[in-house]
Amino acid sequence: MAYKSAFDFSVMKSEFEKAGIKHHFIPLIWKHVLQNPNCQWDEIPSLPSAAYPLLNSKFKLSTSALHSVINSNDKVTTKLLIKLQNGEFVEAVIMRYDTRLGKYDGKPRTGGPRSTLCVSSQVGCKMGCKFCATGSMGYKSNLSSGEIVEQLVHASRISTIRNVVFMGMGEPLNNYASVVEAIRVMTASPFQLSPKKITVSTVGIIHAINKLQTDIPNLNLAVSLHAPVQDIRCQIMPAARAFPLERLMNALREYQNNSQQKIFIEYIMLDGVNDEEQQAHQLGKLLETLQVVINLIPFNPIGTLSHFSTSNDQKVTRFQKILRGTYNIRTTVRKQMGQDISGACGQLVVSLPDKRSTGSADPLTDIEDLRI
Predict the structure, then answer these.
(1) Which of 10, 28, 145, 296 has a Cα at 20 to 30 A from 338?
(2) Phi, psi (5° rounding) for residue 122?
(3) Catalytic option among 91, 171, 266, 368
(4) How far is the C-alpha of 141 from the C-alpha of 256, rounded, in Å?
(5) For residue range 174-207, what is the model confidence (pLDDT) as tens digits?
(6) How far apart are CA 307 and CA 303, in angstroms?
(7) What is the dihedral of CA 194, 45, 53, 62, to 10 degrees?
(8) One Pfam family name from the record (predicted)?
(9) pLDDT digits (tens, 9 = 90+) for 316-363
């Protein structure tokens, strides 16, 4: 029998209820495990006596193990390779920023150094986006809520995590129940992350988008749009055929009407594919009735897996100026981070490293946490 993670809330709650144990003890267990990573179940104080044999027989402090830690040369990005108990691997990435650098709405920003964790929700991915290394793996399995939370646990022992983005391996809304439960754990004691500090990215799983807003209010939604017209979107994102652009836009309008929150739009810049001035205008017209922040993402090389190349700086700047100047849409350009360790956007694909490295980080300006 496979052990369940201590952070699989619904499973532990169910087992506790069957044993007549109140589930309010669960956060106390999590707190002790976080503070004492090498503890044994019997060392956790103040639990009902029936809890100890139950925990020993059905749960593990962690069902995953940190296989390797690789830092980028600039020590700003750290990639974690995590081995699951079924032998599969997933990756998570820590990105370090300094929110005092740069400006927000033309004003100096407050805050200080902080870390964002990019987590995976699946082993592999079904979406098959042609610019993404994870898609080359195909789909293998969903992660449990506990396996998702354990990525935060592993990362928290390396850096204090303030923001979490579901932008790693997998399509989060294709593993809806586990992702929602993981977020509920992350926003509860002892983690206590604010929903406003958590972002879920999706290619546009229409039926799940508005359900997400109902299930977890105040969460940030990011949409991997990547093209302003359906034809191009289908060429580079095969799964887009199931989610026509017109229906997706209607879903986003409904989401925004209900949530009253800005939506983040991710747009990867592919040279000669989606980066022409005409496409900037098409994108502006598509989004001008929504309150959005567009994040232009330079394409990150994925070896022989793709024939795409990234747009040059002049094209990216021109694209940004059209969206800002003509359509008054806030548009940022994502800072490239972690390319040298294949930890940048679109580069996550499991490969076993032969080294482990550590080091401290120099902060960068934050370009993702736009709510500071």
Answers:
(1) 145
(2) -145, 160
(3) 91
(4) 31
(5) 999 999 999 999 999 999 999 999 999 999 999 9
(6) 9
(7) 40
(8) Radical_SAM
(9) 999 999 999 999 999 999 876 444 444 444 444 454 554 444 333 333
